Amino acid sequence: MSTANSIAQNTAAALPHAMPPCANARLALFAVRRMGANGLSDAHVAHTFINGFGENFRRPLVLMRALMADLAANSSCPIAIAPCCCGRITSAESALLTILARAETAPDSARLLLSDLLGIRRIDGVLASATAVAQSFADAGRPIAA
Length: 146
Fold this sequence. Notes:
The chain has 146 residues and is mainly alpha-helical. It has one domain. It is 66% helix and 3% strand. It contains 7 helices and 2 strands, in the order H-E-H-H-H-E-H-H-H. The protein has helices at residues 3-14, 23-38, 43-53, 58-74, 91-102, 107-118, 124-139, and strands spanning 17-18, 88-89. The chain has a two-stranded antiparallel ribbon with strand order 1-2. The longest helix is centred in the middle third of the chain and has 17 residues, at 58-74. It is globular and about 50 Å long. It holds the Pfam family DUF6628. InterPro entries: DUF6628.
């Protein structure tokens, strides 16, 4: 097997999903990736939210920070995130975007996905954070679609 084939197979295994077509989901994904790599107070995320949400950027930004803190504090296993430059997404990122898309419309489905993602049963607090993020995006006219 050639080295190029091996690299392609490893990349496909690590990043099995395509980038979401929804611009709002990509904005949420950008925030997850940047905050996951650089911390909750990442200036690029704040700048992107100011550009994306205008003067109403604070609520989605603060709630996204709270969600990321909840995910980090409550997860019993690592949550794989890819670098911002990747054009594909990990299974964990795909699950998180699906959770955000379903938090308001299909909460039972979001609950099961979040429980699987975190590896714990009691996810009510984290689910409330995810729902708040989804609501803040929708209230700003940027609903997240999976």
